[in-house]
């Protein structure tokens, strides 16, 4: 009745860690077939010593894969070489394959193996490798960086869908191990807890944060207001007293004060916990990330079945606060962690409750949305999470939150209007409409659109080496970021007063260009001129220019705008049709920055920027395995006129058309940027599920 020998299985697992990937794949397929046989004798054989050691070795092998991946990520940070990216993609695929293998083993339904593998994943991977990496600097052999750790936590929750595993990981986020801050000066791989960190936009007298050369993090209470943190926003802590903080606090501190990749990684972990169906809702509530609609659904169900507490909590905020406490499920898992894994330092903060934790999460998300040093893509992720927590309006926003969001919105609106006088005003409206649709889909989506591996890929965003900061290419990137941030904050303003978002942004209609304008007089339309197009020369000024050394050409120079578009035209006059010409060269009017030469008053210098932004093409992204979009170099024209008056006339004409173009873009954007328009627009219908009457945001 007992299996004493199983050569096929025993000999196969000897090759489980072979250097050849195809051999490892074959062995995994074989072992999974064995686990799915369903024979009790086979199950006892594979789960008993010494064969059970295979599962421990598999987890250790996976830990080595994680460390190897971290090495690749560290070496490739900030680079975009195809070979490095390919190696990271390959390592990520292997890691995810191994996690799917773990999931398949557990789903085979052998209880002893399921418990054993879950136990080993927690002990060797989560407790010993991942969570410590969120605390201490990765300067010891065998450790990994915080970004890799955040990615792996997301992968585990996403792939290994085991209830016990998910709930234990959630419970251990409340851990406060002594090793987090040591007197030996170990550096913290992040910042201090969210409610201990002072935001760059908000001053508080509770605590101060300063930076020491040693890099150690410690907390002290200031003796005077002059002991506040500097305006730089650095968040470090000083002697004499040391305080440890849980992983949850570390994640919130990343969002509040961390760099762009730390913010993205922390948001991804919170989003993955939110999306993990195996996680008890009470655990989400304890973490402060239970969506409002789920909380209301739970309380309504309690009220319907006759539990008065549910009815009272649903309709009475005071009753809700009285009964608000950490769930018994979390207490059970914490006791289990203490007894089974010896984590005796799992201590909940005094007065901790889902209500307090929820407010902390909302507070750091609002703070994040007001940060100017975070990419728009990451802010969109934060907007999605905020929308998940508060889907129908301002119910749990404090007055400070609303005021902060409104102030941040005003700053972003000013930045957007500033782009109308920048290098790309002719693209602002088009990009805004496109980003409006993308942002609306992103924050209303049921789940984040980005996979966990995007955390690692965001480290590989290359800096544009050799691109001048004052180039039109750099200005175009800045303009796109400005538009994305404005669109997000605008949509959150609409959402915060309980209204649904329109499919299109409420921008003004294009103005009808006057028939006397240069563009209309020349016979141009919004599509613009093409080489060989016949136009009326009108106010065109004769000039000379040399595109090749030793070869000078004669043209008529004309600056013209139609609506939000504008061009600089060089046309050849038709000999048989006076004051008519054929366009030979056309360039964008915006960013031309006309200037008369100081030594030669008959010369006019013009800057020439590209007509399009190459980075707007997603197929050219280096993360897609394509060649990186080249940053086109700005050009320059020097036009020679026959006298100074002609040169001044050309300068005046160019400046006038630039001003008309910018004014048109401003006019179209004004209906969109006003806070009064947001709260009073008839285009923004109240959300059908928003049952509260709220005052306008700017009242």
Short description:
The chain is an alpha+beta fold.
Report what the structure shows.
There is one protein chain. The chain is of the alpha+beta class. It has three domains: 7-161; 247-313 and 329-497, no CATH class; 518-613 and 633-676, Pleckstrin-homology domain (PH domain)/Phosphotyrosine-binding domain (PTB) (PH-domain like, Roll), CATH 2.30.29. 49% of the residues lie in helices and 8% in strands. The chain is built from 24 helices and eight strands. Strands 1-5-4-3-2 form a five-stranded antiparallel beta sheet. It has a three-stranded antiparallel beta sheet with strand order 6-7-8, with helices on one face. Strand 2 and strand 3 form a beta hairpin. The N and C termini lie far apart (80 Å). The relative contact order is 0.07. The model is unreliable at 177-244, 314-323, 622-627 and 681-699 (pLDDT under 50).
SSE blueprint:
Elements: H1 7-12, H2 21-35, H3 40-47, H4 53-76, H5 82-107, H6 111-133, H7 146-159, H8 163-172, H9 247-257, H10 260-275, H11 281-287, H12 292-304, H13 308-315, H14 317-323, H15 328-341, H16 354-369, H17 376-389, H18 399-418, H19 425-444, H20 454-457, H21 472-496, H22 518-522, E1 534-536, E2 541-548, E3 551-562, E4 565-573, E5 580-588, E6 595-596, E7 603-608, E8 635-640, H23 644-673, H24 675-680
Antiparallel strand pairs: 1-5, 2-3, 3-4, 4-5, 6-7, 7-8
GO biological process, one term: vacuolar transport
Domain FPL: 3-35
Region (Disordered): 501-529
């Amino acid at each position: 009745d007992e299996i004493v020998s199983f050569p096929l299985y025993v000999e196969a697992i000897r090759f489980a860690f072979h250097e050849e990937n195809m051999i490892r794949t074959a062995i995994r397929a074989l072992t999974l077939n064995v686990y799915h046989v369903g024979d009790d004798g086979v199950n006892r054989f594979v789960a008993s010593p010494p064969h059970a050691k295979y599962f421990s070795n598999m987890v250790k092998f996976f830990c080595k894969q994680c460390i190897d991946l971290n090495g690749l990520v560290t070496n490739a940070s900030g680079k975009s070489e195809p070979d490095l990216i390919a190696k990271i993609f390959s390592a990520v695929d292997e890691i995810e394959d191994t996690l799917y293998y773990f999931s398949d083993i557990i789903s085979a339904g052998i209880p002893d193996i399921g418990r054993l593998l879950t136990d080993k994943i927690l002990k060797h991977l989560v407790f010993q490798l991942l969570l410590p990496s969120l605390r201490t600097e990765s300067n010891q052999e065998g450790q990994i960086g915080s970004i890799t750790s955040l990615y792996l936590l997301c992968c585990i929750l996403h792939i290994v869908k085991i209830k016990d595993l998910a709930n234990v990981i959630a419970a251990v986020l409340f851990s406060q191990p002594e090793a987090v801050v040591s007197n030996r000066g170990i550096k913290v791989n992040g910042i201090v807890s969210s409610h201990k960190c002072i935001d760059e936009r908000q001053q508080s007298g509770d605590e101060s944060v300063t930076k020491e050369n040693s890099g150690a993090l410690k907390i002290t209470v200031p003796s005077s207001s002059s002991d506040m943190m500097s305006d730089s926003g650095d968040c470090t802590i000083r002697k004499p007293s040391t305080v440890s903080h849980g992983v949850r606090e570390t994640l919130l501190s990343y969002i509040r004060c961390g760099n762009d990749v730390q913010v993205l990684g922390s948001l991804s972990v919170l989003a993955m916990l939110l999306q993990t169906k195996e996680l008890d809702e009470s655990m989400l509530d304890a973490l402060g990330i239970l969506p409002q609609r789920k909380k209301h659904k739970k309380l309504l169900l309690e009220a319907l079945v006759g539990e008065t507490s549910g009815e009272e909590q649903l309709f009475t905020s005071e009753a809700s606060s009285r009964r608000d406490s950490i769930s018994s499920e979390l207490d059970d898992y914490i006791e289990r962690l203490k007894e089974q894994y010896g984590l005796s330092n799992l201590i909940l903060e005094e007065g901790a409750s889902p209500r307090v934790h929820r407010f902390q999460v909302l507070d750091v998300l609002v703070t994040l949305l007001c940060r100017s040093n975070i990419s728009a893509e990451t802010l969109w992720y934060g907007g999605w999470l905020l929308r998940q927590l508060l889907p129908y309006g301002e119910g749990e926003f404090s007055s400070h939150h609303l005021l902060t969001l409104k102030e941040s919105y005003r700053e972003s609106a000013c930045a957007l209007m500033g782009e109308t006088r920048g290098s790309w005003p002719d693209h602002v409206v088009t990009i805004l409409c496109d980003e409006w649709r993308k942002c609306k889909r992103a924050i209303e989506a049921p789940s984040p659109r980005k996979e966990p591996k995007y955390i690692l890929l965001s480290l590989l965003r290359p800096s544009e080496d050799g691109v001048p900061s004052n180039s039109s290419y750099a200005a175009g990137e800045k303009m796109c970021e400005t538009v994305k941030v404005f669109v997000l904050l605008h949509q959150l303003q609409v959402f915060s007063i309980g209204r649904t978002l329109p499919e299109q942004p409420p921008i003004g209609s294009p103005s009808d260009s006057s028939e006397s304008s240069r563009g209309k007089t020349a016979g141009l339309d919004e599509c613009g001129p093409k080489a060989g197009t016949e136009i009326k020369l009108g106010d065109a000024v004769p000039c000379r220019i040399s595109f090749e050394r030793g070869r000078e050409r004669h043209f008529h120079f004309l600056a013209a705008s139609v609506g939000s578009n504008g061009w600089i035209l060089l046309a050849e006059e038709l000999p048989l049709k006076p004051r008519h010409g054929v366009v030979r060269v056309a360039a964008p009017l915006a960013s031309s920055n006309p200037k008369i030469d100081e030594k030669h008053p008959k010369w006019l210098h013009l800057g020439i920027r590209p007509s399009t932004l190459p980075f707007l093409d997603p197929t050219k992204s280096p993360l897609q395995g394509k060649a990186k979009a080249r940053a086109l170099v700005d050009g320059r024209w020097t036009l020679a006129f026959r006298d100074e008056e002609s040169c001044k006339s050309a300068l005046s004409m160019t400046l006038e058309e630039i001003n008309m173009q910018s004014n048109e873009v401003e006019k179209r954007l004004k209906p969109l940027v006003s806070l009064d328009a947001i709260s009073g627009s008839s285009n923004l219908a109240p959300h059908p599920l928003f049952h509260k009457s709220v005052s306008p945001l700017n009242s």
